Amino acid sequence: MTILFKKYQAWLWVAAFLLVTAASFAIGFDPGKTVFTNFRVSLIEMISFVPFIFIVVGLFDVWLPKEQVQKHIGHESGVKGIALVVLLAMLQAGPLYGAFPVAYVLWKKGISVRNLFIYLGAFSSMKIPMLGIEIGYLGIQFTLVRTLITLPLFIGIGFIMERYLKGKHFEVYEVAPAKEPKKQPPGGIKQPAS
Amino acid sequence: MSNNAIIFISVALILSALSFAMDRQKTIAGFKRGWQMFSRMLLPFLNILIIVSVVLYLISPDDIQHYLGAGSGLLGFAIAAVVGSITLIPAFISYPIAAGLLQQGASYAVVGTFMTTLMMVGVVTLPLEIKYLGRQAAVIRNVLNFFAAIAIGLLIGVIL
């Protein structure tokens, strides 16, 4: 029962909304109707293009696997290294905190401090799936202008961070995933380190 | 808006056809990947659309114009920068909000600042970032990004 509840808990909000909407139409509660109209317009807007972006993103993912790009980011500095980390970041998806574990992996593979922060910058503001949706909602002009202004700035931040952290024993640490209590064997027996 | 939809649908169809001609298996795998990612964001997306619909009903266009509009000056800027830095809204679902703000009369500079701080500065996730990068680097990164975001917002306002 609780498991069932947990599984559908996320949908409760949607269900409650639909319920209130249905009630609003039944009793003629105008604010409820207006809110639903707002919702319907934005839902149609979303459905009309967002799924297609994900088709493109999915195809990108299979034809251009991350590992392929990752292999070529060694210690190269210069424009090529910058271009590669930006490209690598652009092919990702998800929020910025999802980039930190990847940053750790890249750090272990020998990425430079500058490229690491350029990666974080590109990850935060230039991911392709995000750009697609941004174009859909805010237009190609806004997206293009924002991207072209942002790119040199986060590259600049990469250079600043490199200078600032020089000789300061900068390190990217490994952080264990937050919740893994289920994987602990019962009785407090410690698993051998893998 | 509908023009954008037509462009996206055409691009998706053309790329799918190309991909299918080159490798059937890979194309199907790609569709599955895409569906996976889409289904993962669908629920948060629906929820935010509901919230936006409710908020748009509660907050009048006049209010938004007053606090974030062209005449809001420094205050609108400050609100956008602070709210964007603190809140943790996935970029995906912040776009409908940004588009709504623009429609209601917010200026490009303010919306640009909001979007950019949202993306590049993370006050809520700072503790996590400190664990990975160390206190010094994480704090400096966020401070630099905060000022960069304001500069970006201003420049967007000047250009658009």
Automatic annotation (TrEMBL), chain A:
One of its GO terms (cellular component) is plasma membrane. Pfam families: ArsP_1. It is found in: Cell membrane. The keyword Kinase does not apply. It is a multi-pass membrane protein. Keywords: Cell membrane, Membrane, Transmembrane, Transmembrane helix. Its main location: membrane. InterPro entries: DUF318. The chain crosses the membrane at residues 42-64, 84-107, 135-160. The keyword Cell membrane applies. Belongs to the UPF0718 family. This is Permease.
From TrEMBL, chain B:
This is Putative permease. Pfam families: ArsP_1. Its main location: membrane. The chain crosses the membrane at residues 37-59, 71-93, 105-126, 138-159. It comes from the Bacteria. Keywords: Cell membrane, Membrane, Transmembrane, Transmembrane helix. GO terms for cellular component: plasma membrane. The keyword Nucleus does not apply. It is found in: Cell membrane. Belongs to the UPF0718 family. It is a multi-pass membrane protein.
